[in-house]
Amino acid sequence: MTTTKPNHIGRKIARIRELRGMKQEALAHELGISQQSVSHMEQSESLEDSKLEEVAKVLGVTKEGIENFSEEAVFNIIGNTVTNHDNSSLFAYQPTFNPLDKLIEAYEENKKLYERLVQAEKDKVSYLEELLTKM
Question: Quick one: which of 30, 34, 69, 81 could link to 58 by a disulfide (CB 3.0–4.6 Å)?
């Protein structure tokens, strides 16, 4: 494993891109530049702020997130927080549904099940009463 120089922006961009599972071609496409330009950028020790902002936006992180990126910190985060084999917690996963809506749905479903159960019990009682009156 190579250690990243604390100030080598290009290597930090490359590692974040790799952690995202993104190829240079995809980053180049999103930035509207060539793959060779991305390669050159990833070899650069520094980058102008406006370009860094663009790259950060495409990678889904902040400019400061790139500047402060540390491989050791990522491994510490993984070691301390990931208990399954899913790295989504690294990238601030946000569910696409509202948990409150799901809770209300579950409540409504339970209510319907309870009403059907009560109706089944009422039907059973009336059937048994019918049997008793026929005897």
Answer: 30
Q: What is the identity of the amino acid at 23?
A: K
CATH code that applies to domain 9-91:
1.10.260.40
The C-alpha atoms of residue 122 and residue 120 are separated, in whole angstroms, by 5
Using one digit for the tens of pLDDT, what is the confidence trace for 67-83?
888 766 666 655 555 45
Residues 51-80 as b or e (16 or more Cβ within 10 Å = b): ebebbbebbebebeebeebeeeeeeeeeee
Tokens, residue 112: 């319907």
CA-wise closest residue to 87 among 4, 21, 5, 6: 21
